[in-house]
Amino acid sequence: MMFLAVVALVIPAIYARVSEHKHPEHIESLSLDIAGILMLTYAASLVFSLKSHRHLFKPEVEPAESHHGDGPGWSVARSVGTLLAAACGVAVIAEFLVGAVEAAGATLGLGDVFMGVVVLALVGNAAENSTAIQMAMRNQMDLSLAIAVGSSMQIAIFVAPLLVFAGHLMGRPLGLEFTILEVAAVMLSVGTMTLLIRDGRTNWFEGLQLLAVYGILAMAFYFI
């Protein structure tokens, strides 16, 4: 799924370079088409993981380690209502967060790209990052990776295409044409992740190397 996101980001950038931006309307149409394909693929991935092949995603937990809630389970209506209420609350908080980050960036003299790619990403995903770290400290690496990779995958495969459609409906076209540095950052990140998980094992030094890669990318965006 992450490699699919790389393809989706690379193609508009390559087309824009090849066509020398002579047909910007084609880039918008290409972005809409790619966004539709990504959202369909994301929907198919939900069917794959939650229905047709859900057995492949069940955690391997020993019976003695399994825990069950003491109270009765929630109904579907209550669960969906709680999720919707939480989503609305997060949306309101996100507005305050973005405003605060923009003001802080202007005060510190930091560029919009660095604030969006590095600072806002770290602050906005603080809860998920802390949870992934806690799971890793408990040696539950499968869950830790699922949290980290799943968040990135949702942004790339679902949120970005959704913003493309929203921009089109609002009369403010938003294409999937990213800069060469942004595309390279995504490609290198996915490649690094693949190298990390291919043997099914990891250690603290590999984690340090991941932080080194992140630091190098952050410095590159700082000087834009």
Textual characterization of the structure:
This protein is an all-alpha fold. It has one domain (2-52, 100-222). Helix content is 76%, strand content 0%. The chain is built from eight helices and no strands. It has helices spanning 2-19, 24-52, 76-108, 112-124, 126-137, 141-169, 180-197, 204-222. Helix 2 crosses helix 6 (141-169) and helix 7 runs antiparallel to helix 8 (204-222).
Quick structural overview:
The chain has 224 residues and is mostly helical.
Low-confidence stretches: 62-66
Helical residue percent band: over 70%
Distance between the termini: 29 Å
Structural class: mainly alpha
Return the domain count. 1
Using only C-alpha atoms, the radius of gyration works out to: 20 Å
Write the layout of secondary structure elements.
Blueprint: H1 2-19, H2 24-52, H3 76-108, H4 112-124, H5 126-137, H6 141-169, H7 180-197, H8 204-222
Helix pairs in contact: 1-2, 1-7, 2-6, 3-4, 5-6, 7-8
Kindly list the characteristics that best describe this protein.
224 residues; 8 helices; globular; mainly alpha
